[in-house]
Amino acid sequence: MPTEWYQESFGFHSVGRRTVVGRFDGGAITSDGGGVLLREVDERLRLLERFAGCFRDHRKPAAVEFTVRELVSQRVMALALGYEDLNDHDELRLDPLLAVLAGRQDPRGQDRVRAQDRGKALAGKSTLNRLELSTPEQAAGERYKRIAVERVAVDRLLVDIFLEAHAQAPEWITLDLDATDDPIHGEQEGRFFHGYYRNYCYLPLYIFCGEHLLGARLRPANIDAAAGTVEEVERIVTQIRQRWPQVKIVLRADSGFCRDAILAWCEAHDEIYYVVGLARNARLETLLAPALSEARARYEQTQQAARVFTEFAYRTRTSWSRSRRVIGKAEVLALGNNPRFIVTNLGVEQQAGQPLYEQVYCARGDMENRIKEQQLALFADRTSTATLRANQLRLYFSSIAYTLLLGLRRLGLAGTEMARAQCQTIRLKLLKIGAQVRVTVRKVWVSFSSAYPHWQTFAQAYHHLAAAP
Q: What's the pLDDT score for residue 5?
């Protein structure tokens, strides 16, 4: 029963001499009023329009109620606003504001074809689920699952958005690589037990440049963490170099990516460098022993953590094709020795060993914050559908939602108190705003709460977006 027909009053405990009465008579009220900022971001980036262009629609136009853009916009906007599951959309389809964010011309859903759908402006879970179940090879001949994503197009879009975020080509960029676990709890395709993470999971590969997501590839867990990295990096670097032919590129990763194929690929290309962790072994520790003795002496003298850096040429006995520059950190802490190593093809004249480790390599830790944003705040780990391909599409939806929120942070929140806020903080403080929605012939009125505490930041974000090209 629609709530506007339910007229019972609810009497709650009084406050002083005032009685407290509740009724379902507030009209259309949303908890996501700040989502209008996301739509303004999308108007600048054209992100959802271009993402929709990565799908091939084989439906008959005369039988279509929802365009591909409306469907993918609904899915991405809902993720950005904190609704992770398809089941949520059977209730969200009643929200006129989400309909506005998805670009529906009739936010109240009064023009739906079937009588039972009127008042529901958006698609339900079953319609959205067909996006995930469609395959490019079979979509043209299917009866229902006729909208299929083209993976190559989405991969290119993520890099295009990164390139467009820069007014001019930078001299240097750093590409961060990392793999993480995505636990799964069903019988999904590609399900394997991973000994390090001690659970059944996928092993997605992420590639970031600063805050920008350039690649997100879902992979089964029965592979090496670095598997497929050369192909992904080559694709991304080729696209970047088409726009910025002179840019110098540094690949940065932990020891899980210290593979000869990756290092040799960098060495075979001009102005492509690597700074990669190197797992310690007995030979490396022997080479580091003099520096470690010096660090131990400093620690015993001061009782403070001591670091000594050294470097040397090193080659593995079988796995490396050549000798390479290795920087060793001999560190002594109260808990004991903490030796660490990195390998690089940057020369001594380009970067000394200690700042290369402390300022360049250690900065890669910020990438883990970006992965956490996607997995925890934007639900990249909701990979519960049956096939690896469908779960890759879910990862794409999450990636586009992250890119949309990054656009808000970059274009709207620069210079504000939330300029460095994480996605979940932006959502909680700036998007989750109670608002009354009134739809008239000429306008959609979104009336925010007068008690909203972050209205100044909201206003700053609005004006920044209004000024953005």
A: 58
Percent of the chain exceeding pLDDT 70 equals: 99
Sign of the torsion angle spanned by Cα atoms 152, 155, 161, 167 = negative
Radius of gyration of the chain from its Cα atoms, rounded to whole angstroms:
26
**Beta pairing, strands 212-217 & 205-209:** antiparallel
Distances 269 to 172, 176, 266 between C-alpha atoms, Å? 15, 18, 5
Q: Which residues contact 232 (CB under 8 A, 6 or more apart)?
A: 205, 207, 215, 217
First to last CA, the chain: 45
For the chain, the farthest-separated pair of C-alpha atoms sits apart, in whole angstroms, at 85
Classify 293 as helix, strand or coil: helix
Q: How many Å apart are CA 195 and CA 192, to the nearest integer?
A: 10
The Cα–Cα gap between 122 and 120 comes to 6
> pLDDT digits over 166-217, tens only?
999 999 999 999 999 999 999 999 999 999 999 999 999 999 999 999 999 9
What CA–CA distance (Å, rounded) separates 348 from 330?
19
For 24-29, which contacts have Cβ atoms below 8 Å and span 24 or more sequence positions? Answer: 26/436, 27/436, 27/437, 27/438, 28/96, 28/436, 28/437, 28/438, 28/439, 29/434, 29/435, 29/436, 29/437
Taking the whole predicted model, whether its pTM rises above 0.90 is answered as yes
The CATH number fitting domain 282-361, selected from 3.30.1300, 3.30.70, 3.10.260, 3.50.50: 3.30.1300
Alpha-carbon distance of 250 to 328, in angstroms, equals: 19
Cα 445 from Cα 30, distance rounded (Å):
12
Output the CA–CA distances (angstroms, integers) from residue 299 to 332, 355, 402, in the order listed: 7, 21, 44
Reading the block at residue 391, the tokens are: 């779960």
Q: Which of 398, 383, 400, 406 is nearest to 153 (CA)?
A: 400
Q: In what order do the strands lie in the sheet with 444-448?
A: 29-30, 435-439, 444-448
